[in-house]
Write a structure and sequence with these properties.
- The protein has 190 residues and is an alpha+beta fold.
- It contains four helices and nine strands, in the order βαβαββαββββαβ.
- Strands 1, 2, 3, 4, 5, 6, 7, 8 and 9 form a nine-stranded mixed beta sheet that branches.
- The longest helix is centred in the first third of the chain and has 16 residues.
Amino acid sequence: MKKHRIVFATGNAGKMKEIRQIMADLDCEVVSMKEAGANPEIVENGTSFAENAEIKARAVWNCTGDIVLADDSGLVVDYIGGEPGIYSARYMGEDTSYEIKNQNIIDRLADAKGEERSARFVCNIAAVLPDGRVLHTEAAMEGQIAEKPAGCGGFGYDPILYLPEFGMTSAELPWSRKMRSATAGKRWRQ
C-alpha cells in the first residue's frame, strides 16, 4: 500500500522542524514543497491569513496533487493597529532580522502599559485535499508584547510575545506547553 504524503507549502526551515514534530505520530511522509519538487511563483496578495494560506496551498497543490497544507501566520499587535499582521514575514523588509523587527515593535510600544500591550500570534492553516476541496483552521495564542526579548526557543517573534498565563515569553515556553496553548480551540471549516 502506498504511504500517504503531505506536502507543507513553506521554505522556512524552522517552521518545517515544528511541523514535523507536530505531525510525528502520523503514518505518512511530511515534506516541504522543495522536497516535493514544487517551486511555484506564489504571490501572497490576500487580505487575511486565511486567504494567504489558501493561495500558498493551492499553488503547491497545482504542482503536486498531494494533500497540501499551508499556513499564514503572524503577530498582531493591537496598539499599532494590528501590525505586523499578514505582513509579519515581510515587516520592515524580508531581509530584516527578527532581532531588528522585534526591537522596533518594543520601541513602538514604549508608552503602552498593561492591556495596551495586548497581542497574539494568529495562524490559519489551509489544507487542499487531492480532490481539490479546501479546509481551514485558525487559532490564536493570546499574550502581550514583552518589554524586552527573552528566550531562545522557537523563532521569529517568539521572544517578544509574553504569555501572562505562563509568566514567560513564547520563546521561553517548553515545546509541549506551547503546542497545547497554540492548538487549543481550533476548528476546521470548509
